[in-house]
Amino acid sequence: MALAVLGICYTWYYNIQYFQHAVDPSFANFFADAKVNFAGKSLSADLLVVVITFFAFYIPDAIKLKIKYWWVLIPLTFIIAVAFTFPLYLYLRANAIEKQGRIG
Fold first, then answer.
1. Quick check: 14 and 101 in contact, CB under 8 A?
2. How far apart are CA 10 and CA 83, in angstroms?
3. Residue 64 burial (CB < 10 Å; 0-12/13-18/19+)?
């Protein structure tokens, strides 16, 4: 859970800085600014692969483990950050496995 908190604080610190200092602070410009050079494009491509891999793993896993409200993590990944939702999912997953171990 601590990593989820770190993920939201660390990423949104910079998001807030962007929106406070950008000439035209909008989400459209945020994504456009992220693609202004090859370094930004590389990080965006890297993050896209991480998000796709996360969804490919976690959706069937969450259904199998019967994790409640697992679907909420999909929009939160795009609204907040995958740096928040991935560790949060691992926390929810560990709790589900522990709960099933005690019951079964």
1. no
2. 9
3. exposed
